[in-house]
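Bug #77: duplicate submission created two jobs. Keeping one. Sequence:
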Amino acid sequence: MPGQPDPNEHIPKPVASPNAKFDEELAALRRRLVREASMAIDLLVSALDSLWDLDHELARKVRHLEDEIDKEEVEIEQECLRLLTLERPFGHDMRQLAFCLKVNQDIERVADHAASIAKICLKIDPPTPTWPTTLREMADRIPVTCQELVRAVVNSDIETARLIRAGDKTIDQLDKGAFHEIREMIEVAPYNAGLGMLMYRISRELERVGDLLGNIAEDIIYLETGEIVRHTTRKLPPAV
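Kept job's structure:
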């Protein structure tokens, strides 16, 4: 009624956080990074599928799709730099942007290695060879680790990140095992030396992907704790 005091008159109205827009943009950037990672994992799985089946058409598709990740990597980097320039973040916000910049580059490199595997596939003619068991184990293990790493990014899971970082040693051991298997294959059948060299190139590509996963795991630890662990020994965390 006119002249009657408003019961809500003295209740302060909610004030939007001055950083609300920045927080939204940062969250959107993290989601975009996760989507890019999922694209790179799918590309890696497709590259390996093309290899095992010697599916040259799929291998060519992988090489073409890599261009999309290259484009996304550039756009994410530009968005990171825009936020760094305009918002001048500090503390945890600064670590988040540094995380996005570094991980974005590593994701693009995973896609590069997937495209390299597809390129190797195109150099191998049917029939499908007998693949080294250690090479197959690496190829089975790495995509699973990729998925675990994406979940660790989404959930800010430090313990999983530490386990993935330590697991890079297993990939290194499998790479060495593949080298010995391939060397024995060539010794028994020297005419397969060319194929053996291509097989070992695949092993090296996978080993480098393992290194990149370890790097991203280190970045998760840095993001959540501020701890820089890249120059420390990659070993399993103590049991709780």
